[in-house]
Amino acid sequence: MGYLLVVWGYQMIWLNDQSLQWQITAMDMLYTAQRLLGMMTMLALAARFLKRPHRLLPRVNRLVFPFYIFHQSIIIALAFWFHDMNLGAVAETCLIILGTFTLCALLCVVLNYLPFMQPLFGIRVNKEYPRYLKIAGNTLMFILLVPMALNILF
């Protein structure tokens, strides 16, 4: 609900040139409160449900980083796709949230069945590979990452 209020405020106040300063300040405060309450809610849920061991917890924990990587691209893609449909702020926001979670979960499930892709998404490899495959993988990684690193540095 807080996120939907922020989206509403963005559409009605931040994008409106006629907005008064107190309205903009109120939306800034609402946005900050929504971010803090969201983080506190996640911490409370984690403290409540993740304190005791569960058989699924290790499997889910290893997918946190890939989920994070996927969600960034999926949010942008869905927002770009839904933008031209003129669905309205609330419908578009809900579709982006649901679509992001669904697609991220689906991609994480698929990633579980592709062990050769797991290191690219920060998942530790549990299988022992032959030495020549390790050397080939490290060489390929070096060849792919050095140009990008040089581009960032220079």
Stretches with pLDDT under 50, minimum 5 residues? none
How many DSSP H or I helices?
6
The helix-strand sequence is HHHHHH
**What is the tally of beta strands?**
0
Q: Which structural class matches the secondary elements?
A: mainly alpha
Number of discrete domains:
2
Largest sheet: none
Shape: extended
State mean pLDDT (0 to 100 scale): 87
Helicity, as a percent range: over 70%
Hey, roughly how much beta strand do the residues contain?
Answer: under 5%
**First-last Cα distance:** 45 Å
- Based on CA atoms alone, the radius of gyration comes out at 21 Å
Describe what you observe in this structure.
This is Acyltransferase 3 domain-containing protein. Keywords: Membrane, Transmembrane, Transmembrane helix. InterPro entries: Glucan_succinyl_AcylTrfase (IPR050623). This protein has six helices and no strands. By secondary structure, the chain is mainly alpha-helical.
Fold topology:
Layout lengths: L1 H13 L6 H29 L7 H5 L2 H20 L5 H24 L18 H23 L1
Keywords: Membrane, Transmembrane, Transmembrane helix
Protein name: Acyltransferase 3 domain-containing protein
Organism: Pseudoalteromonas phenolica
Features:
single chain, 2 domains, extended, 154 residues, 0% strand, mainly alpha
Report a brief summary of the structure.
This is Acyltransferase 3 domain-containing protein. This protein has 154 residues and is an all-alpha fold.
